[in-house]
Amino acid sequence: MKMKKVLAFGLSAAMVFSLAACSGGGNGEPQAAASQPAGTQSSQAQAPAQGDTAGAAQEITLWTYPIGNWGKEDAVKALTDAFKADTGISVQVEYLAYADGDDKVNSAITANNAPDLIMEGPERLVANWGASGYMVDLSDMLTDQDRAEIQESVLTACTAPDGAVYEYPLVMTAHCMAVNVDAFKAAGADQYLDLETHTWTTEDFINAVEALYAHYGETVGAVYCAGQGGDQGTRALVNNLYGGTFTNAEHTQYTWDDPLNIKALEQLKSMEGIAFDASLAGGDEITKFYQGVLKMAFCWNIAQQLDPNTAGTGAEKTITGEQIAFMGFPSESGEPALQGGIWGFGIFDNGDPARIEAAKTFINYMANSEHTVDAVKTANYFPVRSAAGGVDLSTIWADNEIMDEYQVLMPYLGDYYQVTSGWAQARTSWWNMLQKVGEGADIASTVASYAAEANAAAK
């Protein structure tokens, strides 16, 4: 499916902004944003948004999380060198890890030494640092044409309730799951896969697990719950099986005590071949899937499809060369609601209009010009807009068969609820809840208890 068709479908209208990722080329959704530093900071007057560099600072700083190859120095240097050659502005880059990146940013904010630019997603830039008053409102950078070209739901995710835009989006993706096609064929379970649409029903999933377990006699899929790493996969699995939700549409309440989610957890717990495994997080599950131990993985996205386990041993293959197919999560209708990822740039308000202007010049160069193709391809994800700087972005992956095929999932992107208040606690409550379910605790009361814990943090 070409990107033009994908863009016509658009992201789900309900999506209002998840997969290290399986986000940024890693093994799971980014770690929950740490609590912001004490105190807030009022925004200073905005500098002009567009690319006139007169009066702009000649050196700025960028801190980036590992979003595809934006986490690799050689790839980013090629972009910043080109930017400097065209604008005269040099960019000093620091590469963050999800394990401690939030702590570094929060420490820098506390020390009044935050970077000029930060690259990550709305749960950090909008719901955390933006909501706390540390970010520059970028709404003056968006013309009517920009707003027409950028997916409406993506832009909504980057916008605070008061209308301030704290993230200028660049790329997006959908998190999914994966199956070992050769293992499915050996067990006669491939009959339950639609490898054209890459979707399947809940009934297909249950039948496939039964066939796999009958053939292999061991665990074929793991509900991993050692921590929050990759938890976008377990959330999507549970929510999709019977149509449950994780939050309400307004993102003011956690709703995973929905009876439909309880039904899904009861179904998973009852299945031979599915194990609730408190020794595994998302990255560990990927490794076991890559090694052939597990026959399906719930922590997956395009980065893993291109380079399983980040092992460099071949796209779409396990360590032994077995074929990997990406799949949407099973649902009763066969049409999943997938967790999405959005990444882009924000500017910390350091009180220096010249540096803010230079940072805006950088954003326009990377996300709204003829150079956007290079910036998007460096991320190894999909553009959030149909065109930039007069360049059509709808077919930029036409020369990459895997990327082009993966776009079949993009119309299934669901609600971006990661901006709900209390998100860090909610993620902790979720994996702790899964552990208790795995230990045999009463599912309904356990779910209710941990959902209440998350909602207490959301108030």
From TrEMBL:
Pfam families (UniProt xref): SBP_bac_1
Region of interest: Disordered: 28-53
PROSITE patterns attached to this UniProt entry: PROKAR_LIPOPROTEIN
Q: Which UniProt keywords apply?
A: Cell membrane, Lipoprotein, Membrane, Palmitate, Signal
Q: Ranges of Polar residues compositional bias?
A: 33-47
> Signal sequence: where?
1-20
**Protein name, per record:** ABC transporter, solute-binding protein
